[in-house]
Amino acid sequence: MFRDIHDYKPDIDQAFKANHDLYEAAWKKQTGNISFRVLPPSDVSFYQEIDLTSFTFPQDIERYAATLIDKLDQSYMARRTIDDNCLPAVFPILGIGDYSAFVAGDIIFKPDTSWGQHVLKDIDDWRNLPPLGTSKWYQLFLDISEALIILSKKQGIPYMRGFFSPLDLAHALRGEDIYYDFYDEPEKLHELLNYCADATIHFAESIYALVRKHYHDTPYGTWYTRNQINMSEDIACMISADTYREFCRPHTQRVINHFGSGYMHCHSRAMYLVKEICDLDNVVHLWLATDPNQPRPMDHIEMLQAASNGAVIAIDCDSFSEIETHYASLKKGNFSLCLPVASIEEGEDMVQRFKRLND
Amino acid sequence: MILEEISQLLQKGKAKDVKLLVQEALDQNIAPQAILNDGLIKGMSVIGGKFKNNEVFVPELLVAARAMNFGLEILRPALVLAGNKSLGKALICTVMGDLHDIGKNLVKMMLEGSGIEVLDLGVDVNPETIINHINSEQPDLLCLSALLTTTMMNQKIIIDAITQSGLRDKVKILIGGAPVTDNYAREIGADGYAPDAASAAEMALAMLGAK
After folding, report:
1. Residue A225 — pLDDT band, cuts 50, 70, 90?
2. Domains held by chain B: number
3. In a mutagenesis test of the A interface, which of B58, B69, B151 is the best target, namely the one with the most A β-carbons within 10 Å?
4. ipTM of the complex
5. B contacts of A183 (beta carbons < 8 Å)
6. pLDDT of residue B210
7. Does B150 touch chain A (CB under 8 A)?
8. All residues at 6 or more sequence positions from A55 whose CB lies less than 8 Å from its CB, including other chains
9. Which domain holds residue B121?
10. Which whole-number Å values give the CA distances from B73 to B78, B85, B86, in the listed order?
């Protein structure tokens, strides 16, 4: 079971306010803000402790929810003395598969992740899919989410959920053939991406309605879902900026417009796309995950700042010293920094060092 | 002139045009090997280089590789008649636990575009399957792809299994994938590492030449 959110984050009001202020500033394109979190091993180790193949859905929804919350509780308790910007939240962990199976197909579970199915043999096959909202995993995902929310709301733990962008969803449904579609069937690809935007809006609205139903009287429950959408643009790493502009921008923008603002995610492999993504209207956040064997975002702060259009760019650091080295450049934009640490004690120390640097 | 045109059209992914021009080149009695080397492989080499430098991306590489295959369909019988042999045979797969295949497919296409025969074992492939195919196909080269930090460990498991089965000196092993590095390749006993599909083809040719 979760404990009260204040047990995990004694100064939760301040942490929420800091995050809120950061994104308000980004919304207004006011720069000069740096947010900081550390990443102790306990923040991620629990992922490997959940064997996704040990659950059968829907029979095991309650056991899954209890297991996941138990792991999250341990993870948040481990870092309760770290006064960074990390906010406790509850979120389903079902691998990658559920990010597309809500449209159609089943989820193939592996111990530490899952896969969806490429259900669109032909690019037009989306027209033959069951109506949105009627697939097996659409309702199952909502049921799993509701079980988690019921076990979390009294303790004030907010629910969080991200989505595939229209291109990521189309790729998950279509498979690698989508790369040929850019050349062979550009008009039909636009139609598919348009459908994927509809599907994302439909699904997100259902989830948000569920969250609002349960969290309407809690201070933070709807914080993550108010006027915003969180989307990944992972597959964009495989295409050019021109192709992104032509095929992805209109559909991703439509989803953002529906909700109000966009919290985006892509990889450092796609550093050349940062400007494209941040130039979408009302993008306030871009998490740029560092890829192995690719340029490190921390080595390109000036470029990122110039391309960010005021959005918060969330990046990883290797050491505190490089934050100090790049501090002046970081202050020219809006950045959210994540520093891996070896222990809770080191995490506490790094947070204090950051506060001294940033105050 | 026609060979340069084949190369240019291949780079633009114009598969049907490449096919027609390859036939036209054969009709003009141009040697099949010249059509292969100075038309198709040259085009793939240019597009591979651009891919390596982020000047073109996955869709462009894939449609170019498809154009290459269209050309090869027409050219292959003539190459056989001319006694042309492939530069070697490669097995390729994505390792067990990993279902990602775009990187593997790109490498496969670049190897084929370099004149190497490739047998694709697919994704999520276990050591037993690979060992069976090394025995039955006797490849010169084994290419192991892994996208995830969790599955790159399986490249080592596969190499260890090949070593234990006594086949390690029968085949060169090339590994790749987003998290893989040259150091890691050395650590796990691979013969080489390539950071992208174009480099994989260059590395494969070098490894086959060294055999």
Report:
1. low
2. 2
3. B58
4. 0.92
5. 13, 59, 63
6. 41
7. yes
8. A63, A64, A109
9. 89-210
10. 10, 15, 15
Evaluate whether A200 touches B19 at the Cβ level (below 8 Å).
Answer: no
Contact A295, A38 (CB under 8 A): no
- Shortest CA distance from A184: residue in chain B: B63
At B113, which CATH number? Answer: 3.40.50.280
CA–CA min distance B93, chain A (Å): 16
For residue B65, the domain's CATH number is: 1.10.1240.10
Residue of B nearest to A97 (CA): B99
Residues B123 and B29 in one domain: no
Q: Would you tell me how many other CB atoms lie within 10 Å of the CB of residue B157?
A: 16
What part of A 269-298 touches B (C-beta under 8 Å)?
Answer: 269, 272, 291-293
CA distances from A83 to A13, A51, B148, B177, B194 (A): 12, 31, 32, 37, 42
Q: How many CB atoms lie within 10 A of CB A83?
A: 18
> What token pair was written down for A194?
């348009």
Q: Among all chains, which residue has been given the structure tokens 């084929």?
A: B112
User: pTM score, two decimals?
Assistant: 0.91
| Single residue among B46, B81, B116 that ends a domain in this structure | B81
Concatenated DSSP letters of A182-216: HHH-HHHHHHHHHHHHHHHHHHHHHHHHHHHHHHT
Go through B80-110 and write b for each residue having 16 or more CB atoms within 10 A of its CB, e for each that does not.
eeeeeeebbbbbbbbbbbbbbbbbbbbbbbb
Strand partners, A164: A232
What does the pLDDT look like over B129-176, one tens digit per residue? 999 999 999 999 999 999 888 899 999 999 999 999 999 999 999 999
Q: In terms of Cα–Cα distance, which of B157, B139, B40, B54 is closest to B92? A: B139
